[in-house]
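User: Modeling request: complex.
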Amino acid sequence: MVGNMEEKITVNGKDYLLKPYRDYGKNAIAKLKGDVIYIKLPRHWNSELAWKIAEKLKNRMITNIGKGITSSSELTFYNVHEVTVLGQKYAIEKIEGENKRNRARIVENKILVNIIATLEKHKKKEVIDELVRRSLSRELLPRIIAKIDELNDLHFHSEIGKVSLRQQSSRWGSCSPANNISINFSLLFLPQEILDYVIVHELAHTKIRNHSEKFWLLVGKVMPDFRERRKWLKKEARKELTKIFNFPNPQSSVLNCQTMI
Ligand SMILES: [Zn+2]
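Assistant: Request completed. Predicted assembly structure:
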């Protein structure tokens, strides 16, 4: 299945198209988009190695799809009973019953999720993920905004637009030309100094829109140890999230969050 050899595979009764391709870069990555599994293989690998790794990634992806882990960006709360968010522990309680609708609310340190008992398993998972994500975002967005305001007032004095928490697979944060700042929801589960780094990074973009030397100088002025935090984000963040959310393997096919930072 290397080169341009596409292959059709069926997992849990659903068809997927497997598309391996060669590209620059050091690592092989498998990604699922809709019903297409893309497997990127480094150009410089010989075909024997590429074939071996592609097979491995393919099988891992099949396992993950089979288990219902279909997206790298989605943190799944289905099998998670407790999370620590911005230093605060929350228990996640799922209550199945004859409710008319699914809903979640946060009461003290508990996220209570009521789900309709008769839902199919995959639907339940979807509903739980969505509801937990939504209630945590609602609960914590004010604290993120306060943090951004505080760092902005101290160091940048920029006009900040809208702040949002978003579940994204490709970036940890972003800053639009109108200074709308978006922070990756996953960062809530990582050490706060890492979140602070991403916030400082995005705030620095309100002054300098690129990643030039000047930009890094500005980040360094505000946060002298940013390089260590950045390194941690690149090297450890996915591993850490894997541990928390029981992903099958940190380096695995589905964990493809290449930071843009
Ligand atoms: Zn940036």
